[in-house]
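Subject: for your reference before the review

Hello V.,

The reviewers asked for a structural picture of the protein, and I figured it would be easier to keep everything in one thread rather than splitting it across files. Below is the amino acid sequence we used in the manuscript, unchanged from the supplementary table.
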Amino acid sequence: MSAVLVTGGAGFIGTNFVRHLRRLRPHWPLINLDLLTYAGNPENLQDLAGDSFYTFVRGDIADRDTVASLFDRHPIRLVVHLAAETHVDRSILDPERFVRTNVVGTYNLLETARRAWKDLPEAAGCRFLHVSTDEVYGSLGPDDPPCTEASPYAPSSPYSATKAAADWLARSYFRTYGFPVIITNCSNNYGPYQFPEKLIPFVLCQALEGKPVPIYGTGANIRDWLFVEDHCDALLKVLETGAVGETYNIGGNQERTNLDLVRLLLRLLADLRPGLGDLESLITFVPDRPGHDWRYALNTEKISRMLGWRPQVALEEGLVRTIAWYLDHQEWLARVRTGEYRRYLEAQYGRAVSKPRLTTGS
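And here is what came back from the structure prediction:
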């Protein structure tokens, strides 16, 4: 039976997508390839250990031999490529890692799959879904229309530049070899299992401990927010019914400034966990990061028109579900917040993130 390879399946989106597949396509043999760097957590999928249709492999997509061995051992006909270094701040501190994973790793997967599939009949149904980001389109002004799939690329950070390079490499394989690649570009995801360096779980962690919530600049930068389960639904739809060679934007159509999002998040947290005090007073503005894009926004008319997909979860509902998940998984949070994570936070934001809030009379 044909198998699906999911790269980065122990990360945030990967974990949710693997779970989505096991629920909706339980008889698909699934190989999950993940290097288990700081954001990959095998605990996320421990309950699948007895699933005979699920195989976990710890390995690096930038290691050509590792990738080739999977195609040799398994009848892989579908690839969902989620593995990537994704955090902009980390890409500023260490761009080389992003080049290796996002560009070299993507090349290894494309080339290995191309060689493995080149003599298979079209009826084999091979597809390579390359999952990318809205950041490749660069920064928009407040009144600019959302980006379409035809918008020019203008990446600003080493992260977005390496993802843009990977997109173009994938696109070239379709144009040059007729390779069955499909590309998706998504907006900011949020939801369960997200590593707490990203904005929403980071704010929750800081607020629950009464510590400062740092916000870059004035907090006026704008992002579009997509609940991760909506994203997983879109990815499966694109994988099964999307047109080879096409690109699809996947967005939540819910733009907010960073400051407005944090205020909403803190208000909802206070409703779900009374007694935490004046959470908004924790907001602390810190110097802006280099090359900080002003706004991202995606036009999602194409995927809606061609594949019938639309986001189902409104922002406030998704945030409530996300907060509730983190409140119910405090032990998970404690385990993932390792010494490396703490060192990174101090290097990025300064020691202010570790200082508890002063209360009246202290």
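For the response letter, the relevant points are probably these. The chain has a mean pLDDT of 93. The CA atoms of residues 170 and 181 lie 7 Å apart.

Happy to draft the paragraph if you're swamped.

O.
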